[in-house]
Specification:
The protein has a single domain, classed as Amino acid/polyamine transporter I, CATH 1.20.1740. Helices cover 74% and strands 0% of the residues. The protein has helices at residues 2-16, 21-29, 31-48, 55-74, 82-90, 97-114, 129-136, 140-149, 155-184, 192-195, 204-236, 244-264, 268-295, 306-335. Helix 7 packs across helix 13.
């Protein structure tokens, strides 16, 4: 789906000769289209501050993946919970040997039951699956700028670049999720690295992965500042000339907001979920489809043509995903289950 939406974007861009997402929106629907695209890009990259997208961060993701796969074969299941062991040690003097052995047997009997893989797991966190997947593959604001920078820019070549990138990232996400799940099974938490704290919070390899992730996110901030700042400029200062004061002020405000979000948000699951349910469907499904319908002349492709029918269906799928995901996430928040588990 992500590849098909990139195909729609590239075709629309080729017709009007525009290489910016916001300008495609302006060409299709005027100022409202440009504003909608800019807001969606800003929201998407706000969430991106808490992820990472750069060459160095890609290396860190490979390091993360290797560590997760290695830990799968190092950590036994059932595993010994560090916090439980610490608590037991503190109270060991007050517990008789007979009751300790009895409780240990009960714990191991319960733990053995979760060391089995389930093909499908349905719980309150399942509603975040589609939004987070949409967020993970929402690379569309960067497609047109990269298209411009190619040595021999053609739609076919850019489509190949996009397809290979999506395939590589999908493979890495799949392997990390698979081996992370097969390590902890039913006890895996929304934030995988946080789950390893239950084994050993001072594990050297996991601490190195955390540091690498922190460095990757920090060094990625300037990259992510660019599209957000450009989107804000389009929204608030469309006719103003460049100003260093405004340039720096926007960056400081954005960084302050992101730091507050990281500090006060209970976990990252809700952030990725709400952004993935709002801006990501717009950037992946809705905007490429409606821009394509609006920009491609009816003389070239009438509304009854197969490409435009597919574009309409694509937009409907995006709207359905957005409504469904937002509804379930709001229900989950209302029930108060989104605060369970996880951490920074």
């Amino acid at each position: 789906m992500s590849s098909f939406s990139i195909h729609l974007m590239l075709k629309s861009s080729g017709i009007v000769g525009i290489r910016a997402y916001e300008q495609l929106g302006y060409r299709a629907f005027g100022t409202p289209g440009k504003m909608a695209a800019a807001i969606a890009i800003a929201l998407q990259n706000v969430g991106g501050y808490l992820g990472s997208t750069s060459g160095f961060s890609l290396s860190c993701m490979v390091f993360f993946l290797v560590a997760v796969i290695y830990k799968k074969f190092q950590i036994p299941c059932p595993f010994e919970d560090f916090s439980v062991n610490s608590t037991s040690a503190l109270h060991s003097l007050n517990i008789s040997s007979h009751s300790l052995e009895h409780n240990s047997a009960l714990v191991h009997e319960d733990e053995d039951s979760y060391c089995e893989a389930s093909l499908f797991t349905i719980n309150s966190k399942t509603v975040y699956t589609i939004p987070i997947m949409a967020f993970a593959f929402s690379c569309h604001p960067e497609v047109l700028p990269i298209y411009t920078e190619l040595r021999n820019p053609t739609k076919k070549r850019m489509q190949q670049v996009s397809n290979i990138s999506i395939l590589v990232m999908y493979t890495m996400y799949l392997l990390a999720a698979l081996f992370g799940y097969l390590t902890f099974y039913g006890k895996v938490e929304p934030e995988l690295l946080h789950t390893y704290n239950r084994i050993d919070p001072y594990d050297t390899l996991i601490l190195c992965v955390r540091v690498a992730t922190l460095i990757a996110v920090t060094l990625t901030v300037p990259i992510l500042l660019f599209p957000v700042r450009r989107a804000i400029q389009h929204i608030l200062f469309p006719t103003k000339s460049f100003s260093w004061l405004r340039h720096i002020a926007i960056a400081l405000v954005l960084l302050t907001l992101m730091n507050m979000m990281v500090i006060f948000a209970p976990n990252i699951l809700g952030i990725f979920g709400i952004i993935g349910a709002t801006s990501s469907p717009c950037l992946i499904f809705i905007f490429p489809a409606v821009f394509y319908l609006r920009i491609v002349p009816k003389e070239d492709e009438p509304m009854s043509s197969v490409p435009k029918i597919l574009a309409v269906c694509f937009a409907v799928v995006g709207i359905s995903f957005m409504v469904m995901s937002l509804s379930f996430i709001l229900i989950d928040w209302t029930m108060g289950s989104s605060n369970a588990g996880g951490g920074h």
